[in-house]
Design goal:
By secondary structure, the chain is mainly alpha-helical. It folds into two domains: 3-57, Multidrug-efflux Transporter Regulator, Chain: A, Domain 2 (Orthogonal Bundle), CATH 1.10.1660; 64-201, Globin-like. It contains ten helices and three strands, in the order αβααββααααααα. The longest helix has 25 residues, at 149-173.
Length: 204
C-alpha cells in the first residue's frame, strides 16, 4: 500500500469511521485512537489502527450493504417528511436561520453516531457515549436559545417518530428477517432514549 494511503487526514479518517471530525478529534484527545502530528501540527491517522478500532466495536448482524441501503432510504424518507412538516411546528417558527442551521448540524452528527451504533449487534459503547455528549450539547443549545423543556422535547419527538417509522418500513422492504428488524429497532430506540435523557438533564 502506498504511504499516502496508509496515513489519513482527520477528515479522511472521520469519513472512514463514519463519524463527525469533531468526534474523532475528541477520541484522539482521549487516547482511544492512535494518531501522530505532522511538523505543522496536523493530525494523521494510520489506516490499520482505524480498522482495528472499528473491528473492536463492530459485530454486525445485518450485512453492510443491506444496512447501508436501509440507512440511505430511511434518511431520505425522514428528510422528505421533515421538510414538509417542520414549518408547521410552533417551536420551529421561533428560530432564525442561524439557529435552525445549528440544530441541523447537531442533528446530522447524532444521526451518524446513531447508525454506527445500530449497525452493531452488540457493543458500540464508544458511539453511544459520544451520542450522549452531543445530546448534552443539543440540550444546552436549546436552553440557550430560549426553548422551554417541553419545546425541546417536542423538537426531538418530531424527528424521532418519522425516523423510527422510516427504519421499520425500509427494513421490511429490503427483506431483513423479523429477528434482524427487531434487533435493529431495539438498538435504535435505546440510542434515542439515551439521547433524550441527555438532553433533558441539561434543563435540570
Amino acid at each position: 500500500m502506498k504511504k499516502d494511503l496508509e496515513w489519513l487526514t482527520l477528515s479522511q479518517a472521520a469519513e472512514l469511521l463514519g463519524v463527525h471530525f469533531t468526534t474523532l478529534r475528541r477520541w484522539a484527545d482521549q487516547g482511544l485512537i492512535e494518531h501522530i502530528r505532522t511538523p505543522g501540527g496536523k493530525r494523521k491517522f494510520n489506516r490499520k489502527s482505524l480498522e482495528i478500532f472499528l473491528s473492536r466495536y463492530r459485530y454486525p448482524a445485518i450485512s453492510t450493504n443491506r444496512f447501508e441501503e436501509i440507512q440511505s432510504k430511511a434518511i431520505l424518507q425522514t428528510r422528505q417528511y421533515l421538510q414538509n412538516e417542520v414549518t408547521r411546528q410552533q417551536w420551529f417558527l421561533h428560530l432564525d436561520e442561524t439557529k435552525r442551521q445549528n440544530m441541523r448540524i447537531v442533528g446530522h452528527r447524532l444521526i451518524a453516531l446513531m447508525f454506527q451504533y445500530c449497525s452493531r449487534d452488540t457493543n458500540g459503547e464508544a458511539f453511544l457515549k459520544e451520542g450522549e455528549l452531543i445530546a448534552a450539547e443539543y440540550g444546552q443549545f436549546c436552553k440557550s436559545i430560549g426553548l422551554s423543556l417541553s419545546e425541546c422535547i417536542q423538537a426531538f419527538l418530531f424527528f424521532r417518530q418519522p425516523l423510527l417509522n422510516s427504519m421499520h418500513e425500509t427494513g421490511t422492504l429490503t427483506g431483513i428477517s423479523d429477528q434482524e428488524g427487531h434487533r435493529l429497532f431495539q438498538r435504535l430506540n435505546y440510542f434515542l432514549d439515551r439521547v433524550l435523557i441527555g438532553m433533558v438533564k441539561e434543563y435540570e
